[in-house]
Amino acid sequence: MKRIGVFICHCGVNIKDTVDVEKLTEELQDYPGVAYIENYMFMCSDPGQNHIKNAIKEHKLNGIVVSACSPTLHESTFQNVLKESGLNEYQLEIANIREQCSWVHNDIEQATHKAKLITKTAIEKLKLNESLYPVSAPVTKRALVIGGGIAGIQAALDIADAGYKVIMVEKKPSIGGHMIQLSETFPTLDCSQCILTPKMVALSKHKNIKLYVNSEVEAVEGYVGNFNVKIKQDALYVDPDKCNLCDDCTEVCPVLVPNEQEEGLSWRKAIYIPFPQAIPATYTLDVENCLGLEPIACGKCREKCEAEAINYDAKPKIIEEEIGAIIVATGFDLYPVENIPEYGYGKYPDVITSLQFERILSATGPTGGEVLRPSDGKVPKEIVFVQCSGSRDPEHHLSYCSKICCMYTLKHAKLYKHKVHNGQPYIFYIDIRAGGKRYEEFVQQAVSEENVVYIRGKVAKIYKQGDKMIVSGMDTLSGKKIEVQADLVVLAMGIVPNEASYNLVKKLKINTDDKGFLTEAHPKLRPVESLQAGFFLAGVAQGPRDIPDSVAQASGAASKALALLSSDKIYHSPIIASVDKDLCSGCMICVGTCPYGARKLDEVSKVVEVNDILCEGCGACISACPSGAAQQKNITDNQIDNMIKIIASGK
Amino acid sequence: MKDFEPKIVCFLCKWCTYSGADLAGTSRMKYPPNGVVIKTLCSSRVDPQHILLAFSKGVDGVFIGGCHPGDCHYQSGNYKTKRRVILLKKVLEQLGLNTNRLRLEWISASEGRKFADTMVEFTEQIKKLGPIPKINCKEDQNV
Fold first, then answer.
1. What are phi and psi for residue A185, nearest 5 degrees?
2. Looking at the DSSP assignment, which residues form a beta bridge with residue B104?
3. Whether the model pTM is above 0.90
4. In 3-state terms, what secondary structure has residue B132?
């Protein structure tokens, strides 16, 4: 039987005025299990704490009940007292007789009686408390960053600069994401490639970063601090260490493929470099579009390559890495324009997406930076930009705002005017969202100085009439239908999570919302972590945002990952679920109740196991278990039952 | 019934309702002393078997306090609690118990007033219902 010491606090007059502490002491003196009892003015004070320490020594106590204020205030204070006295800190129970008794009742007799019941329930619970120790697991000091766009690059650099090893996995042949496709960035009109490529190079040269391109995460096993990740890398037909970027292979390749980097506005070959500043700096063979390697249908590129970098016998590889923390930065795609057939995309070559216009503006793009329209290569004298293409349309398309389109559309209009001085941009809009730093000034300057014409209304239809495109919509400020003719129409398409992320999140078992964006642990206070321990979120994968916010968030995710990686061990509260293997029948009802995936059927023993690090201690599985095999440490069914019986007795 | 002081068990979840009750305390709100609190980390820890045990031992009313839907600290615990209570009430009905003896309420950490008011109301309701009828069940030695 435990030797329990009961310490009743007066809390000055806060408790003493309403609860008769002397009477309480007297009534509990002979209660079974109580080896010592006293009441004192301020239990939390130094002298008060010393009372407890002395009593532990003198009366050989091994369990302590403190009847005082709410545990939220001093539970840890008294846990320290136990630790300093050589006792396990979980042999402590706090009976809340202040916030939930003396402060809320008037009648002294009733309040004292209730304080007795509260203290007795604490004593009964304590009798069955086990000594518990924080659960710990080692941490592999290596991070994985999935996605090589600006967010992934920033997170990788931050972690690597802090001295930890980073593995980066990128699906495409080069890192750079969408940012490398941009011409200039708002509101500074910085050349996008000029600000991004130094980071890309820094990443490629960083001694702490290993980069796998043409790769995807195949499987993730394990848990926070202890992940085992399998990465599938496509066959590298061109050896990046040997390729010297001479471009001879491209010249002889007979295959033409729509160029993804140019958003289909021009062609590339089956063997190519995605863009001149690609990292890794190497050409790559697109085996899907190559005429064939088994048997070799063409073979010209290998023949021509003087560096002997091309190997048709290359095979895909599975690479296994041990990882402690995973950052998901998989970025976005544009909402499919085909979903809005009334805009005429695909039917009319002069209706293009914002990313396509970005490539037209870019000096490294298909038109060398001249604004020329796709159908006949003429310079458009009038361009209509359609904001909210697909966004803010809960009935038919995306319900949410894609956040960046107001700003980049205006950027497009400005850059167009800089290049075509007498060109006229028209922008159909619903609102102008310019909340960032210097964004509003950017808007005002364009409207007042650059003659950008804004038309408030949605576009209903886009069609061709002779040589011109007609954009037909509503002008809500005048209340009239409006038709604007244009040489070129640019659709500011909404953004959606990267298509590859849909499969990826199933492999990682992390949550997304109903739109596919990664779900953060708390919408306000924990924006860069997933609820799944060990996973961190960065960039548009978590929700639409611009470059500064992506960078900031990536650094935030990196700092959270670093907090994890910098510990030798991770610790966790031990008030968690357990399984009595003798009682468990393997029915697995409990497995589905766990929001953290902490319960799993062990394939060998056929009973359920709890992952101590993932279990958060909610207890949902305990209530679901039909056999009582599932119990919670120090909140067992027996403990709850004993507390109920005290209350039922009314004594 | 005059002078009938009901015995009430209050299961409160640590993150929301328990903190709401503490707030009622720091704000010195007053309510009847009939409810004694059993604190769990989540309302989903409350097993229907505990509620049945309480009633079978002569507890007159059982109160469960959890987080508002969507706010559960453990994501979905409160949804499970809600489903369990709905199903349990069907059983209580069949046992001949007034289902109002079991009350589930969503009370957040900032709703001290709501906690106090609910305690007043629930205690009053149980007082009107009177003591719980003795449920004739064989005493299980382990229970």
1. -115, 145
2. B64
3. no
4. coil
* pLDDT, tens only, A186-219: 999 999 999 999 999 999 999 999 999 999 999 9
Q: What pLDDT is recorded for position B141?
A: 44
- For the purposes of burial, counting CB atoms within 10 Å of the CB of A307, is it exposed (0-12), middle (13-18) or buried (19 or more)? middle
- The minimal CB distance from A648 to the residues B26, B57, B76 is found for B57
pLDDT at A450: 86
* CA pair distance A298, A337, nearest whole angstrom: 36
Tell which of B3, B7, B17, B44 to mutate to test the A interface (max A CBs under 10 Å).
B44
What's the pLDDT tens digit per position in A406-446? 999 999 999 999 999 999 999 999 999 999 999 999 999 98
Residue A165's pLDDT band, with cuts at 50, 70 and 90, is very high
Nearest CA in chain B to A625: B47
Sign, Cα dihedral of A342, A347, A351, A354: positive
Q: Decide: B66 and B85 in contact? Cβ < 8 Å.
A: no
Q: What is the pLDDT of residue A11?
A: 96
Read off φ and ψ for residue A324, nearest 5 degrees.
-100, -40
- 3-state class (DSSP) for residue A315: coil
Helix (H/G/I), strand (E/B), else coil: A319: strand
Mean per-residue pLDDT, A58-74: 96
Structure tokens at A447: 């409207």
**Residue written as tokens 């009733």?**
A110
Helix axes B17-26, B112-129, angle to 10 degrees: 100
Which member of B33, B84, B116 has the closest CB to residue A110?
A: B33
Instruction: Calculate the average pLDDT of chain A.
Output: 96
Instruction: Render pLDDT for A84-102 as a digit per residue (tens, 0 to 9).
Output: 999 999 999 999 999 999 9
Contact A249, A310 (CB under 8 A): yes
With contacts defined as CB-CB under 8 Å, which chain A residues touch B29?
A: 104
SS (H, E, C) A141-186: CEEEEECCCHHHHHHHHHHHHCCCEEEEECCCCCCCCCHHHCCEEC
**What's the pLDDT score for residue A219?**
94
Distance between CA B27 and CA B6 in Å, rounded? 25
Residues 6+ apart with CB under 8 A from A294: none
Residue A336: CB partners within 8 Å, gap ≥ 6? none
Mean pLDDT of A136-141: 94
The token duo for A229 is 């990740």
Supply the pLDDT for residue B143. 43
| Chain B residue at shortest CA distance from A575 | B41
Write the single-letter amino acid at A30: D
Taking CA–CA distances from A577, the nearest residue in chain B reads B45
Interval A116-140 mean pLDDT: 96
Residues A168/A212, Cβ–Cβ less than 8 Å: yes
**Any idea which of A10-14, A271-275, A353-357, A519-523 has the lowest mean pLDDT?**
A519-523
Task: Please count the CA atoms within 13 angstroms of the CA of A105 that sit on its side-chain side.
Answer: 25
Who among A114, A121, A635 is closest to B33 (CB)?
Answer: A114
- For helices A150-161 and A192-205, the axis angle rounded to 10 degrees is 40
- Asked if residue A126 lies in contact with residue A63, where contact means CB atoms within 8 angstroms, the answer is yes
Beta strands in A351-432 (DSSP E): 351-353, 382-389, 424-429
- Which value, to the nearest 10 degrees, does the dihedral of the CA atoms of residues A582, A584, A585, A587 take? -170
Enter the tokens of residue B40: 């769990």
**Torsional sign, CA A132, A134, A135, A137:** negative
Low-confidence ranges of chain B (pLDDT < 70): 1-2, 135-143
- pLDDT score at B57: 94
Which segments within A193-337 are labelled E, that is strand?
Answer: 209-212, 215-223, 226-233, 256-258, 267-269, 271-272, 284-285, 317-323, 325-328, 332-334
